[in-house]
Amino acid sequence: MLKKVVFFLAAAIMALPLSAVERLSSGEQRRHLSDSLTVALANTDSPADSLRIITDLFDLAPRQQRDSIGRLGIDIAVRIGDSRTGLDLIRNICNLHHSSDTALEKDYDLAMNFNASADRDETVTFIQMMQNYNSAKHLSADRRKMQLRQLIRRATDDDPETDLERMVILHAMAVNIAEISQGPLLNRYFEELDTLASGLRPEAYALQNLICVQASMAYASSDASRAKSVHYDRRLLNRIDAMERGELGIRHPYRDYNANRYVLYCRLLSNFDNISPEEVEEYYAKVMEIVATDSVAASTNRKSLRPQIFHAAATGDDNTVMALLPKALDMPYNKGIRSRLLRIMIDAAGRTGDLEKQLEASLEYNKILEKDITERVNENWRELEITYDMGRLRQKYISENAKIENTMLVVSLVAGAVLLILFIILFILFRHSRRLAANLKITNEVLNSERRSLAGAKASLEKAAERARLADSLKSAFIKNMTEEVTVPLHTIAEHTSLLVQFAKNEEKPFLQKYAAAITLNTEIVSVMLADLESLSKLDSGELALLPRRASLRTLCDDAVNGVSHRLQPGVQMLVDSKIPDITLYIDSTRILQILWQLLSNSAKFTAEGRILISAEITGENQVSIYISDTGIGIPQEYNEHIFQRFVRLDPSVPGAGIGLPLGRQLAELLGGTLILAPQSPEGFVTTFILTVPIDSRRRRKS
Asked: Whole-angstrom Cα distance, residue 132 to residue 171?
C-alpha cells in the first residue's frame, strides 16, 4: 500500500513540467502536495495507511480545514487502536480551539475514548491547561480572587495524588496570577511547574512546550521579567529544531514551523535589551527570511512592522524608528504592545530632538501606565503564600490540636494556682507590713518552690507528649502484629475443624457439622473484626491507599452477596435487584466490597426473617447510589448518627465490636462518597443504608 501512495505522489509531481515546479511558491507547492495526498488517500485500502496520509494532510491544510481533517484521523485512530497518533492529533486541534471552552470539552471527551495510558493522562492534562489559560483570560478581578482561593484550597485540602494533577492546579494558579502580577509568586509557580514537567517522560513534550510558551508570554508583558521570557523562548527554539529533526515526538515531514519561529523571533527582538547585539542581527535575519518566503508571515509583518521597529531600536537607528512607529501605533495588531512601542518612541524622539513627538508619546504613555496601575489588583501575595504554606500544615495541626489543648489546660491550672498563691501572699504582706522582712523571705522561698514545680511540670508534660506519640505508634504496630499473629491460628482452627468433620464417622458427621459451622463462623467474625481494626488504624494514620481500577457495578453487588450469604439466618433471603444499572465504575473496588460486606453482614445479623435486598441507581452525572434494605429489627431515627460512632452497639447482646459502620463511613468518604441511614425505607422494608460513590474517581473535580 505504501508503494501505491508513493506512486500517486510521484505521478502527480511528474505531471508538471520542471520549469513549472520551479516557479511554484512555497504555498503553491504545499497545495499541490496536499492535492496529491488527497488522490493517494482515495486509493488506500488500509486504515493505518489512511491515517498516515491524513496526518500529513492535517499539516498541509489551511488552518480552517484542519479541524475536520483532524477529527477524521482521530476517528480512525480510535477504531484501529493507534492512541499515539490519535492523541497527537487531539493535542494539535486543541491549539485551534484554545479560546473555546465548548470545543475543548469535546476534545477532552475525544481523548477519553482511548484506553488509559500515560499518553492519554498527559493529553488530558494538556487540555485542562488550555482550559485554565482560556478561563484566566476572561475572569473579572473579583472572580479571579475567588478562583485563586478555590485553587489554594484544592492544592492544600485535596492534596493532589499525582504530579499531573498537581501541575493542573499549579498551572491554573500561575496563569491567573500572570494576569495581575509578574512578581515572586508567579516565579515560584512557574519554576515548580517547570520542575514537575522536566520529570515527565520525554514523550510528554507537548506539556513541556505549553508551559514554556505560556511562561514566556507571561514574563514578556513586564519589563522586570523580560530576561525570563528570553530564557523560555530560546528553549522553545531548540525544541522546535528537535521536533523538526524527529528527535522529539512524532516526526511531521510536512509540518511548517515558520509561524512558530516568526512569533519567537519577534518576541526575542522585542526583548532586545536582554540579548546580545549578535543575537539581534541573527534573529532579525532569520525573521526577515521567513517573511520573504512565507505569505502568512509576510501578511502578519505588514500588519505590525514589529521586526523592523525592534531591530532599529536595538541598533540605535532612531530615524527608522521614528519613520515606522507612527504607522505601527495605529495598527490594531499592535494594541497589546502599545505601551512598549510608546516607550521606544519616547527614547528615539528624545535622541533625535523631536520634542513634540516625545511629549505626545510621553503623555499617552503616562495615561496607559496610570490606567494599568488603576486596573491592577493589588493582592497581598505574602499573605497568599502564607495561606498556601499553612494549608499544608493544616492536617498536622488537627492531629496535634488535642495534645496542645490538654497541655494548655494543665498549664492554665498551674498558672491559676500560682496566681492564687501570689494573691494570698500579697494580702498577707498588706496586712502584716510590720513583719515585711520575714514575710519576704518566706515569699521568696515559696516562689522558688513554685518555679521548680513549674519546671518539673513542663518536663513532665514534654515526657507525656512523647509517650502519647510513642503510644500511637505502638498502637498501630500492635494492631498490625496482632492481626498477623491471630489470623494464622484462626485459619488453622477453621481448617482443622473441617478436617475433623471430613474424617469423622458418617453417623457422627451431622452432629459435628453443626459445631464445625459455628466454629468456622466465629473464626470468620474474629478475622473480620481484626481486619476492620487494622483498616481503622491505617485510616487514622493516613496509610490506607486507594487502588482504583475498572469494575462492573453488577459484579460488585453479586460478589458482595456471595461473600455474606452463608451468614444468613434460616428462612432469610438475600437478593440482588435485577434493575441495577449495567455500568462500569473506575474506583477502588476492594474498598467498595469492604463497605458492602459490612452493611450486608449487619443486615444478616439483625434480620431473623424476611429478606435483604441490594439495589442501585445513578443519582448524578458522576454518581451512583447503592441501597441495602432489610426486614430486620430496625434502627430508631434518633440513632441515625449515633450508630456511626466508634464502639457504639445498640444491642449489647448481639456479637460485634461496634466498628463496622464507622469504618464503612470513613471508607466511603475516602472514596469521595457518603454513607447514611435513609430516613425512610422502601415499602416492605424496615431499614435502608445508602452508599453513594463517584462512578469515575478521576472526575471528582467536576463533582
From this structure: 7
Which grid cell is 614? Answer: 441490594
Q: DSSP states of 597-628 as a string?
A: HHHHHHHHHH-SSEEEEEEEEEEETTEEEEEE
Lowest mean pLDDT segment, chosen from 200-204, 217-221, 356-360: 217-221
Report the predicted TM-score, pTM, of the whole model to 2 decimal places: 0.53
Are 279 and 295 within 8 A, CB to CB? no
Q: Which residue has the higher pLDDT, 451 or 324?
A: 324
The CA distance from 539 to 236, in Å, is: 46
Kindly give, in sequence order, each residue whose CB lies less than 8 Å from that of residue 687, ignoring residues fewer than 6 positions away: 603, 606, 629, 630, 632, 634, 635, 677, 681
Strand order in the sheet with 687-694: 572-576, 610-620, 623-630, 687-694, 674-677
Cβ partners under 8 Å of residue 189, min gap 6: 170, 171, 173, 174, 177
Q: Are strands 687-694 and 674-677 parallel, antiparallel or unpaired?
A: antiparallel
| pLDDT exceeds 90 at position 575 | yes
CA distance 90 to 74: 7
CA distance 9 to 55: 16
CA distances (Å), 472 to each of 86, 476, 537, 553, in order? Answer: 52, 6, 10, 37
Crossing angle between the packed helical segments 381-431 and 141-153, to the nearest 10 degrees: 70
Closest CA relative to residue 167, chosen from 218, 208, 138, 136:
208
Query: What is the pLDDT at residue 517?
Result: 53
State how far the alpha carbon of 71 is from the alpha carbons of 54, 58, 102, in Å: 10, 10, 15
